[in-house]
Specification:
Structural class of chain A: mainly beta
Keywords (chains A, B): Copper, Disulfide bond, Metal-binding, Oxidoreductase, TPQ
Helix content of chain A: under 10%
CATH architecture of the largest domain in chain A: Distorted Sandwich
Mean pLDDT of chain A: 95
Number of strands of chain A: 35
Shape of chain A: globular
Low-confidence stretches of chain A: 668-673
Modified residues (2',4',5'-topaquinone) (chains A, B): 405
Strand content of chain A: 35-45%
Largest interface: A-B, 192 and 192 residues
CATH class of the largest domain in chain A: Mainly Beta
CATH superfamily of the largest domain in chain A: Copper amine oxidase, catalytic domain
Largest sheet of chain A: 10 strands, antiparallel
Pfam families (chains A, B): Cu_amine_oxid (PF01179)
Protein name (chains A, B): Amine oxidase
Number of domains of chain A: 3
Subunit structure (chains A, B): Homodimer.
Oligomer: homodimer
Amino acid sequence: MVPHPLRALSLEETKTARDVILSLHKDVVVDFREIYLQEPAKEGMKQFLDLEHSLRLSPTSKRPPRLAKCQYDIVGSDRIPEYHESIVDIDVKKRVKHEIIGKERQASLTLWEFQILIEACKKSKMFQNAIAEFKLLDGFELVVEPWPYGGLDFGAENRRYFQGLCFAQDTRNGNADSNFYAYPLPLIPILDAHKKEIVRIDRLATGGKGDSLTGKTHSERIIDHCQPAEYVPELLKNGTRKDVKPINITQPEGPSFKVTDESLVEWQKWRFRVSFNPREGAVIHDIHYDGRSVMYRLSISEMTVPYADPRPPFHRKQAFDFGDGGAGNCANNLSLGCDCLGVIKYFDGVVIESDGEPRVHPNVICLHEQDNGIGWKHTNWRTGRAVVTRYRELVVQFIITLANYEYVFAYKFDQAGGITVEVRATGIVSVVSIDVGKTSSYGNVVSGGVLAQNHQHIFCVRSDPAIDGHKNTVLHEESHTAPWDKVTNPNGNFYEIRKTVINKSTGLDAAPQHNRVIKIVNPNKKNPISGNPVGYKFTPPPTQKLLATPGSIQAQRALFTNHHVWVTKYRDNELYAAGRFTLQSQLEIDGVAEMAKRNDDVTNEDVVLWSVFGLTHNPRVEDWPVMPVDIFQLNFRPADFFSANPAIDVPSTKNTSSVLVEKNDCCAGKQKL
Amino acid sequence: MVPHPLRALSLEETKTARDVILSLHKDVVVDFREIYLQEPAKEGMKQFLDLEHSLRLSPTSKRPPRLAKCQYDIVGSDRIPEYHESIVDIDVKKRVKHEIIGKERQASLTLWEFQILIEACKKSKMFQNAIAEFKLLDGFELVVEPWPYGGLDFGAENRRYFQGLCFAQDTRNGNADSNFYAYPLPLIPILDAHKKEIVRIDRLATGGKGDSLTGKTHSERIIDHCQPAEYVPELLKNGTRKDVKPINITQPEGPSFKVTDESLVEWQKWRFRVSFNPREGAVIHDIHYDGRSVMYRLSISEMTVPYADPRPPFHRKQAFDFGDGGAGNCANNLSLGCDCLGVIKYFDGVVIESDGEPRVHPNVICLHEQDNGIGWKHTNWRTGRAVVTRYRELVVQFIITLANYEYVFAYKFDQAGGITVEVRATGIVSVVSIDVGKTSSYGNVVSGGVLAQNHQHIFCVRSDPAIDGHKNTVLHEESHTAPWDKVTNPNGNFYEIRKTVINKSTGLDAAPQHNRVIKIVNPNKKNPISGNPVGYKFTPPPTQKLLATPGSIQAQRALFTNHHVWVTKYRDNELYAAGRFTLQSQLEIDGVAEMAKRNDDVTNEDVVLWSVFGLTHNPRVEDWPVMPVDIFQLNFRPADFFSANPAIDVPSTKNTSSVLVEKNDCCAGKQKL
């Protein structure tokens, strides 16, 4: 059976691609980084999807070629790796594109490179001597946590670096999951990844308010005033709470969704495809509702997490979790009854080892339905008749772990035609040492000797709409107070709706004071009821933009954070808001800011929207040791796309499993229940 | 047993109060409006609660008196009702306060007044003649929907008016719940409530873009181009969808909460009281977590819904759903398995008839637990060990119906110390006639001949914090870009946190561009970890403020909408953001704007916070005939109140009821699952 063009590469296809690459690079070492589907060019894909949706697809129909994007280092006799990207046509087993990436760009990191850092630390005399300066308590052992190096300083040579954050782990409890983040050590070894050597140790300031940005103030016994901060249940001093009784979610008739071809999801008039790749994690394709096209592609494109502690080298704490390490690579293998409840369908991914050998990355995406309270309700107060429906959602979820931190990403589809992209931030906040008794302007003391530094998380969701077709127009709609006017506003209650069409590719901002709503419409098709063009809308979350000083490395490499919304004209392969190569970047190159600068016509064109939102996270003590989720949502809603509320036909069935509390269950007292 | 001082009045107490009032007004007719608990003055209550929480309460302890607030009209021989408010001490059966409200204020409306409008329409020749101008199709019958009159025009005599929105109902299907809103008629009868007569008929413009604000353009057959818009399932043309399989939520071990004394709720270290009154609906009192005080009182204080259609008399469409009609009066009687799922505890309310006879208003509040996805998670990538907990919430919910529209209000408590106030807007949008084929700048055509007018919903949540005691301080915290500085910001990554203490009572606004967060702290108690004062925080939702022209009646009577946040110094009986009397008001009197103007010291004082947020609702076709919920949240979160994440001891128990999809359940295709 021929795979659907949007389906992720199978193990076999991945192997084929690997073999083609190996056959082309014979007398050298090939260290593979990634192999994954190179999605078809849109023109060919549009033709294919037209056939598919009109049920005219036949075995002889023209199909876009199955292409594999292969990323790898070639290590020649000089032992300096050279980074290549190739595209292999799987069907004909041929390379169709080959690009040697120059020295100016760094490939995304892989987990095997993290291992190099760990090994190099063990071998480095310089590092061992530095560590020996600290008197660790008996039973404490060193943990090195590899991080990307952040942006290269101006003028620095663009070698490939990694940095290691150092902690001590209390091993006396014999539990490998004892929380070492509670014992930070104030030094950072720097790896030259090509030399595989620690080339420098950065010493960290540990002072507080009033202390200088550099200079040692800490004693060699700095972790003595740290305290345990355990989160694994068997290490909690008082155990877990005993009064949480189970909430069971069962679906006795099975789920309401259908999954075929391991990628095609059908649920409640929705139909879309799910794929998975190492950079973006779960991606949603070809979204239709009731046979009508809504979006061509929906993905989380990028995020950046800059830290605000001005003391060098903390300015290099700035991750691009999609571009640097790959959200798909970092995706959790999800677990039944923990990460989601009910009847669950999991999707596997395929990842590769450095020898290019593919393996299944199991349960990287979960799919399930959930109840989210009341969906719509109306009571006729004359008759007392209430009609109430539930808000049922279908959730495509993946979760990534990046060293200390986690993100839960979900695409949620609802019965009223809405699509919500949700991000939950959780995990352990990034911390550094602080001297006993001090406080800081750069973060909050969340545990003895532990400073959680102020930082931001800024996300970018890329949506490639196809509202009843690929030619769409973007406009923003605002509501404005109108002046008194005897004729047009005699009582002062009128407010004016202003619509502004976005004619050229650009960036624009949220404007909650004007209730600015972004609409994506198909100017060629009118709603039969309202006469307005059919469309979808979203309100850009007016979250704070990047705070780093304009012109700083942190700001320059994340130009995508300069606006809440970008509107660009579609081009194949433009998927990444901060550009293809973010690792160690000093400047965002080929990112969305550049795409927007082309000044393309974007009315009645194939447009792409990029929504940027996030949080300024100045940690609370309550974020320690693992922070409760902070939840962010981007809501796409139909706006005159349908002829009525599409959820009006949801049955208002009474759920028969709900019961009244029984008196002996929960309630006591002298009064009747 | 003596009722707790915060418990709502029982049937018996209500009767006692009624009888005291009747005994004091003998030779007149007394038309009762409301009788409900006059909450104790705070000073006495503080002493009582101190005893209660320190377990020193004894039968001889001093208790605040049980007081009833009684609202009623006295109808003397001149037949013009005079509105009175009295406070009755239940224990001693004595009136302790009596206030005759002047003519300048209007009492809240009651449902029996709505009935007067209906009857007056039937009796009014003028109205019957006006209706006869329309040629209704056979089988269509008139429906008059009573509304408050909105703000009195400048210079108008302050008589008591009601207005009726007119619709035709298709009775041919024999279903009393056939949706009459689909057939609006362009006239509004005006009732003089004291005379009980229709005194005027307002004719409504029905034109579109380019038409004047007044003047008739419609034909007598205006509803001929209207279409059915049914939502009750038995009237749906194609029935309800068949593919929604049940999601059952069961709690085999019962709920985790405990309710005693019909008002005291204990759940997961939370402890608070729930009461119900006709104006505010459900109110939460005396909120503690793990024995520590968080809030004295939390309530929805007010909301206003101004309509933006400038054509007179639509400027009078402006409801204050709490002050005008009473959220408690309009509360739905909730239904098991429909309005919430799982194990449900319902609370009843007590309301009165016009003769003062109390009756139980059953199931006006529901209490239940729910699962809201992942609560916190961390995976140790070295060992692969994931610890993941669920986000369990306890929900206190009530739902109100105001003619066409509904709001679902919920107070949600979570295991991480957070309190969320949630509003869901649903129901049927308010509509008026529009001529066939026209469109309008004042709203959207959502069905043939039906214009859904642009409007806003602006809510005010009142929180009376008591962070580890009643003396609290409010500050706002912002994050700001810092300039380059060789010494303090050498790499440009630093951002500065600015804290500003609110010294005097005032209004202030959301500032998302600066990540403005409002913190309520107890300046007398420091967090032992961070050294910061213990506190709670919330981010003011930066939603659009009232759009009506400054100085207009709509704006003047809703001055509370001028700011996103108000900080005032506590005074007894100051509960209502738009003042005690909103019905027909021309100006907000004794509302929060006045309270703030006192310029009270509010540092280390008993402070009250008022959070104003809402939505500008320019209707979509998808909002018809019943709109999918639009969801708004205000999130109170601990900020250095605790010494760690209070949910860290939530067990990471795997839910055993979750299952994998089975192939024949949902999935097909040639590929392995």
